[in-house]
Prior knowledge:
The chain is mostly beta strands. It has helices at about 10-15, 15-25, and strands at about 1-5, 25, 35-40, 45-50, 55-60, 75-80, 85-90, 90-95, 100-105, 110-115, 125-130, 140, 145-150, 160-165, 175-180, 190, 195, 200-205, 215-220, 225-230, 235, 245, 250-260, 270. Strands 1-3-4-11-6-9-12 form a seven-stranded mixed β-sheet, with no helix packed on it.
Amino acid sequence: MNYRFEASRKEVSTFTNQELRDHFLVENIFEANQIHLTYSIYDRMIIGGAMPVLGEIKLPNPEKLKANYFLERRELGIINVGGPGIVKADGQSFEISKLSAVYLGKGTQDVSFSSVSANEPAQFYLLSSPAHAIYPNEKLDRENVVTVNVGSLENSNHRTIYKYIHQDGIQSCQLVMGLTILEPGSIWNTMPAHVHDRRMEAYLYFDVKPGQAVLHLMGETKETKHIWVQNHQAVISPPWSIHSGAGTQNYSFIWGMAGENKDYTDMDFSEITELR
């Protein structure tokens, strides 16, 4: 498990492009028959991916967690961005197709992942935050997810927001998780930009077509920075940072948050004309 430590606003304002990437970009999420995990000090979120091809792979228990098992003091959100797959949790099996999700609560001990077909392996995106209450394990199929259509083609930001783990959906201790799909011809996400000092956030960009990329914007509103992001790469967003982006074509991304509250609408917006 890799570690990413905090960086202050002042530090980030002086970062080179490579320093930004080293601190905030998670490049290796999916690898055949492997589970990759990155531990962020921001709200102690763990970002990861599991890509089973041949047989099952088990959720590890990294030594630095100092736990008897991974979810002893944590909860876990899982969204599949690949082929059909199976999540097993303490003997219960959840089969999920692309863009369906599973939530596993604190106290779940034995977790493993597998694919229905090695020719079309599942790609399970993982987000885990500390938990101090137990909520039941639950599956949510894509067709049952609460959706909201926002933006417009005229503003190049027509998109559909899918809410999975939130106040009115799957219940959790503090994890909030969902995804956004941009329509063809739209490239902007989260504009006007916002921050929420009460929560950190992480983005996984996916369905970025070959040869295309996303320009992810971060930093303070008057001191913005950027990171070029490829398909299946994630960006860690500190609570004080904006998190927005524009692609060379339309794309999708999974957003996930943890912190002070679970209110999806808790955002402090900035006027577009204020950005520097």
